[in-house]
UniProtKB/TrEMBL annotation:
Coiled coil: none annotated. InterPro entries: Eqnu_transpt. PANTHER family: EQUILIBRATIVE NUCLEOSIDE TRANSPORTER (PTHR10332), EQUILIBRATIVE NUCLEOTIDE TRANSPORTER 3-RELATED (PTHR10332:SF38). GO terms for molecular function: nucleoside transmembrane transporter activity. The chain crosses the membrane at residues 17-36, 56-74, 86-106, 112-132, 144-165, 185-206, 261-280, 292-311. It is found in: Membrane. It comes from Gossypium mustelinum (Cotton). This is Equilibrative nucleotide transporter 3-like.
């Protein structure tokens, strides 16, 4: 195994562009399953017209996501981040595939039993989301801000691209027999493939990039225990003579120091869920767009979400260009 002491400059290391691409794919894969569920809401409303699927599935998803995230955040310093992220993406693969299996097993029929099965699978989506998003952001926080921006850009892109694909499939299958189901099956199959790709990239490719090795080794030398498994997977062993470590703040102290961010996140979630899917599936009357109305609203929301997430990275690029031009 290679022993790394963190002495090499990150500016000389290769793999930054590759790492940013992988981070984008990881972000895309961490939300494509849930976005697909929301985007094919018209199919589930056709199957379960009396169960308000989009509202109920959201209410099932969020408590499991929040509860799992709270447990993981409380035990963050003791958790193997590599296993957490691999488990999360693997759970996404299994859960999305089970939605396909459930639909095929029931031949696309509705009923209370099928709906309960979908709710159970969506609960696993919430657990997987809590594992992946918190774990990946925590992992990337040891590295460059560009990696986190790329990850969140992938999150936003998953919504925009699933909306675009949904509009295409609806137009393609609208006049065919059982078109809603065909479009839904296509969505779930694509989601399963992307989740599997994320497992492969994070497990085998991402840890071996030179720039990723550097930052994880640097974090380990500064006292981080959550990157040890990642370094071992890349064939790296850090020296035992770590630098003097600062005492870790308690969870309560960390929460108090970041309470403004916690409040911001809470308000963002309240606003987001009140609009999407809250408002979109209310009885808002008749529209010229007909059944296309919620899909167009979802697409509009996702496109502007994508634009807003990309603005910070583009603003940084413009400031850098202005700085270079000044000299």
């Amino acid at each position: 195994m290679t022993i790394v002491d963190g002495g090499e400059s990150p500016s000389r290391l290769e793999g930054k562009i590759s790492a940013m691409i992988v981070c984008w794919i990881l972000g895309f894969g961490s939300l494509i399953a849930w976005n697909s569920m929301l985007t094919i809401g018209d199919y589930y409303y056709n199957l379960f017209p009396d169960y308000h699927p989009s509202r109920v599935l959201t209410l099932v998803y969020q408590p499991f996501a929040f509860g799992t995230m709270s447990i993981l955040a409380y035990n963050e310093s003791k958790i193997n981040t590599r296993r957490r992220n691999i488990f999360g993406y693997s759970l996404f693969v299994a859960s999305t595939f089970m939605l396909l299996v459930l639909d095929l097993a029931t031949s696309g029929r509705g009923g209370l039993g099928s709906f309960i099965g979908i709710c159970a699978i969506v609960a696993f989506f919430g657990v997987a989301d809590a594992c992946v998003q918190g774990g990946i952001v925590g992992d990337l926080s040891f590295m460059l801000p560009d990696f986190i921006q790329s990850f969140f850009a992938g999150l936003a892109a998953s919504g925009a691209l699933t909306s675009a694909l949904r509009l295409i499939t609806k137009a393609a299958f609208e006049m065919s027999n059982n078109g809603l189901r065909k479009g839904a099956m296509l969505f779930l199959a694509i989601s399963t493939l992307f989740e599997f790709l994320c497992v492969l990239l994070y497990t085998y490719f991402f840890p071996k990039l030179p720039i990723v090795k550097y930052f994880r080794s640097k974090a380990a030398l500064e006292g981080s225990k959550t990157v040890q498994a990642d370094l071992a997977a890349a064939g790296i062993q850090t020296k035992d003579d770590h630098h003097e470590q600062n005492e870790r703040l308690s969870n309560k102290q960390l929460f108090i120091q970041n309470i403004d961010y916690a409040l911001d996140l809470f308000l963002i979630y309240v606003l987001t869920l009140s609009i999407f899917p809250g408002f979109l599936y209310e009885n808002t009357g008749e529209h010229k767009l007909g059944t296309w109305y919620p899909l167009v609203l979802i697409a509009s929301y996702n496109v502007w979400d994508l634009i807003s997430r990309y603005l910070p990275s583009q603003g940084k690029a413009l400031r850098l260009q202005y700085f270079l031009d000044s000299y």
